[in-house]
Write a structure and sequence with these properties.
There is one protein chain. α3 runs parallel beside α5 (about 155-165). The strands form three sheets. Strands 8-9-10-3-11-12 form a six-stranded mixed sheet, sandwiched between helices. Helices cover about 35% and strands about 25% of the residues. By secondary structure, it is of the alpha/beta class. The chain has helices at about 45-50, 85-90, 110-120, 125-135, 155-165, 185-200, 210-215, 235-240, 245-255; strands spanning about 5-15, 20-30, 35, 60-65, 65-70, 70-75, 75-80, 95, 170-175, 205, 220-225, 230-235. A hairpin with a 2-residue loop joins β4 and β5. It has a single domain, classed as 3-Layer(aba) Sandwich (Rossmann fold). The radius of gyration is 19 Å and the shape is globular.
């Protein structure tokens, strides 16, 4: 069996006295598309932020591509990772955030080319070429010279996806990427993500409240509550025949709110 691209073992995360992740264990296979669902505050976004090294861990172990993320070898012993190790490990992972996080004073093209030039030493010509290819892929080839303020929310999010892809990560994390958008703009972003899922072998983890999209997108769905996985399985199983009462209760509320699952 191939080694998982992500391995999480006994993960603990607390903020002061509040425990948000408690003894979490799961693997992600290379190329797998994973949807993380559950009520607000269940730890889903925290998991993505930990994988992106935006939050540290309180205990446990994470491996990315067989390498420890928060630990490193020094003098024959395993010690907490230093910033150089974390920086090196980040090359495996890209993340798209809920609120775009584009640089407002830089053009669309500059937003996409900045990180490859700074972190990977790409020439401006190479970075520009790749950025224009990605803009074409997300349907924004004509917006390279625009400023973020000239774009709609859906366009900003598609630029953010192109920016994350510019570093050619093996793993992409999507954190509620449509929740800040007006309803009519949601579909254009979801269509880009569907293309990514269908046309690439990239490993993708998606935190979403869009249950219909999670059903269509994911190979596996993990339902979280209070920092633990309550239930997991293929989308058809989770959305049509969940085994756990907590999953059933959550999905009943989602359906009552008018969502497709």
């Amino acid at each position: 069996m191939d080694q998982p691209i992500i391995r999480i073992q006994n993960l603990q995360k607390s903020f002061g006295t509040l425990t948000v992740i408690d003894g979490l264990n799961f693997d992600v296979a290379k190329g797998e598309k994973l949807a993380l669902i559950g009520p607000s505050g269940s730890g889903k976004t925290t998991i993505l932020r930990i994988l992106m090294t935006l939050e540290g861990i309180s205990g446990g172990r994470i491996e990315i591509c067989g390498e420890p993320l928060y630990h490193m070898q020094r003098n024959g012993a395993e010690v907490p990772a230093d910033e150089a190790h974390l920086h090196r490990m980040r090359r495996y992972i890209g993340m798209v955030f809920q609120h775009f996080n584009l640089f407002p004073h830089k053009s669309v093209l500059q937003n996409i080319t900045l990180a490859p030039m700074l972190t990977k030493g790409e020439t401006r010509a190479a970075a520009d070429k790749r950025a224009r290819e990605l803009l074409d892929m997300v349907g924004l080839a004509d917006k390279a010279g625009y400023m973020p303020s000239q774009l709609s929310g859906g366009q900003k999010q598609r630029v953010a996806i192109a920016r994350a892809l510019a570093l050619q990560p093996q793993i992409m994390l999507f954190d509620e990427v449509t929740s800040a958008l007006d309803p009519e703009l949601v579909e254009e972003v979801l269509e880009v993500m569907k293309r990514l899922a269908a046309e690439t072998d990239m490993t993708m983890l998606l935190v979403t409240h869009e249950m219909g999209f999670a059903h269509d997108f994911a190979d596996r769905v993990l339902f979280f509550d209070r920092g633990r996985i309550v239930e997991q399985g293929p989308p058809k199983q989770i959305f049509t025949a969940p085994a756990e009462d907590r999953t059933k209760s959550f999905l009943r509320k989602i359906i009552a709110a008018g969502q497709r699952v």
